[in-house]
Predict the 3D structure of the following.
Amino acid sequence: MVEHGGFTGAQLALAMSQSTISFQINALEERLGFSLCQRGRRGFELTDRGTAVYEYSHSLTSALSAFEMQLGELRSKATGVLRVGIVDATVTDSALGLDDVIHQFIKKASEVDLRITIGSPEQLIAETAKGGIDFAISPRIKLLPGYSQTEFHYEINSLYCSERHPLFSRKLVTKADVEASQMVVRPYANKSELQHFPNAHVGAYASNIEAQAMYILSGHFVGYLPDHMTVTFRQNNRLKALLIPEAQIRSPFVIIAPKHKKASLSQRIFFQELRKRVGSAEKSAGKGQAADAKNKMPKVRGM
């Protein structure tokens, strides 16, 4: 209920009626001997003790997962739960090929319960911090104390406008034209999207790539998108890349993991498959990124 904002969200996520959920909460409160939450007209809210129980539950879940994985290590067999956080809008990145990585991982670690969380970098960091995921695959963000950020891949982002935007029909677009337009940016990008346009007018902020694409497609904003996700829009003449290649951005992708935790066997298998996939894709493309990807693959503790 906490993670879904109350009864309504929990009902949808658990496929249970409100009365069933309420009964289970009441039963748990009776066993514990104190109230976990306030519920009524003012909505759902944890009590102080309820907040403590919720936080303790994360520690318990992580400990049980770690115990199961450690037993697997002793048997040299990957078991338990592997929780992977992946930034949104990566499914169209054929060079990254996470669908192939997942396919191979499940073949080699069939007893592992693989759980994937999709979100913005901020959401993934929060989940990593509270133990909700084991590691995150994300664009590089600000330096995080206590976490490693190991670069292993990059994607090219270009500046786009839609067919509704005045710049779409321009044969010649200048830096001044872009800076005179409204721009949409992602806060987690840490102003990297403005590196070529320091005087740009930021008119909107997007929490993720899909939201950014919607802003751009509206015709009111220009902004950056990964080239791999714009192919169909370009083919349908709905998006146009501006100032190529001088305004393009090379966005490094990293694996974010807690420094104090040793990589489990299941994590090592996942990283190995990621290494193979990225290296193979870049080798096939015959580009210099192949060497970069191979040399910069994660040297995660315990591998």
Notes: The chain has ten helices and eleven strands. The longest helix spans residues 48-74. Confidence is low (pLDDT under 50) at residues 289-303.
